Amino acid sequence: MEQLITDAATLKAGAEAIVQLAQSTMANPTEPVTTTTTEPASGAATQAVTQMLTGAEGDVDFTVLGMFLRADIVVQAVIVVLALASFWSWTIIFEKVLHIRRVNSRSSRFEDTFWSGGSLEDLYDNTSDRPRDPMGAMFNAAMREWRRASPKERQGEEGTKASLQQRIDRVMLVTFGREMDRLERYMSFLASVGSVAPFVGLFGTVWGITNSFQSIAMTKNTNLTAVAPGIAEALFATALGLIAAIPAVIAYNKFSSDLSRYANRLTAFADEFSAILSRQLEARG
Fold first, then answer.
1. In terms of pTM, does the model score above 0.85?
2. What is the SS3 assignment for 132?
3. Which residues contact 261 (CB under 8 A, 6 or more apart)?
């Protein structure tokens, strides 16, 4: 309260000095205006008004770079960590979008070829060197096990045929797990950023506000111009935490849904292909 009364008195004195200066200038327009004055108090008040109006607010830089450079070392570390997490999250997001779209497209082309009625042996010969999608990799693993089987296993007793069928199903299951692990790579990072980043930003905010309160206690100055920079830096950490977390959460949910549908698609293909091989084994028996 005393600070407000002092500021008001200073403003009033400064205004009176400005009015007196304007009146003297209008009364003697031809005389040069001198910088000396007979009222030191009015001159000091004028200087104080000028400083309050132009100096205090103009020296505070509220840009992103300005707040970062002015922040405490702990808040700076929080900002750097969140910025790196956000950058890496967006890198993963763009890579996943392109990769999932490419995998779906290649799997669709492979399914069209698979169900076109051609020979499975010819299809395996054309794709065995380098499968371009998880569905082709599962097909190649099953056909490789099929070719490794001896003629006795293909045309032998029922128990031998069942053993071959189990091995084919097992290799397709192993390939399915390996391919899904590749597709789900870095998904845990997106989940971690989405759940942890807001709390990291909140830690930076609490730390920054604590420093602001300590500055108020040491300077005994509750003026908004003295408190605002520290609070702005603290809130910037929270905003950056949300900027990192929100896209990561949305992307994680979207990719999880897409990969779940693709996993069901691979499972259905494996069941259908296993049924085809089972029918061939029965026909040869």
1. no
2. coil
3. none
| pLDDT tens-place string over residues 155-205 | 655 556 678 888 889 999 999 999 999 999 999 999 999 999 999 999 888
Distance of alpha carbon 92 from alpha carbon 85, whole angstroms: 11
Give the Cβ contact number of residue 82 at 10 Å.
26
Residue 110, C-beta contacts closer than 8 angstroms, at least 6 positions apart = 127, 132, 133, 135, 136, 139
Asked if residues 14 and 37 have their Cβ atoms less than 8 Å apart, the reply is no
Give CA–CA dist 5/211, Å, rounded. 27
Q: Do 79 and 71 touch, CB atoms closer than 8 A?
A: yes
The letter for the amino acid at 27 is: A
Provide the 10 A C-beta neighbour count for residue 190: 24
**Angle at which helices 73-114 and 120-127 cross, to 10°:** 140
Cβ distance 226 to 219 under 8 Å?
yes
In terms of Cβ atoms closer than 10 Å to its own Cβ (0-12, 13-18, 19+), residue 279 is: exposed
Structure tokens at 45: 């008040």
Q: How far is Cα 86 from Cα 72, in angstroms, rounded to an integer?
A: 21
Q: Which residue has the tokens 């607010």?
A: 57
